[in-house]
Amino acid sequence: EVQLVESGGGLVQAGGSLRLSCAASGFTFDRFIIGWFRQAPGKEREGVSCISSRDGSTYYADSVMGRFTISDDNGKPTVYLQMNSLKPEDTAVYYCALSFSPAAQAMDDLYYDYWGQGTRVTVSS
Question: Which tens digits make up the pLDDT trace of 17-70?
């Protein structure tokens, strides 16, 4: 059974940092994409960042470019999202998700088949 477990959320002041972790398990295929999505109250879910196990290529939404960094554990299904210079508008529930489709790099959530339970990030002003 595929499982994704996020951790690392919390409350932080604007300008601060948090590091989210996502540990995926229950599969053996070595080509996958793990993405981070977020959903703020009253807003649609949006793609934040993703990383491909095939070549380490990454994607970032414009809203987080230069502030967030995604990384993995040498191709293992554990992914980190380092979030720096946090803003109140980054407040959301953050979800990691797994896809075995190369198309998932476009951050369309339709390509992600497995989702974690989410971790809440709150940035105070």
Answer: 999 999 999 998 889 999 999 999 999 999 999 999 989 999 999 999 999 999
In angstroms, rounded to a whole number, what is the distance separating the alpha carbons of residues 12 and 84? 11
Q: In what order do the strands lie in the sheet with 76-83?
A: 3-7, 18-25, 76-83, 68-73
Distances from the Cα of 57 to the Cαs of 7, 51, 70, 104, 111, in angstroms?
23, 6, 10, 12, 17
H/E stretch holding 124 reads strand 119-124
DSSP at 66: T
> How many percent of the chain have pLDDT more than 90?
86
Burial-class residue 14 by CB neighbours within 10 Å (0-12, 13-18, 19+). middle
Size of the chain, expressed as the number of residues it contains: 125
Angle at 21 between CA 57 and CA 30, to 5 degrees: 45
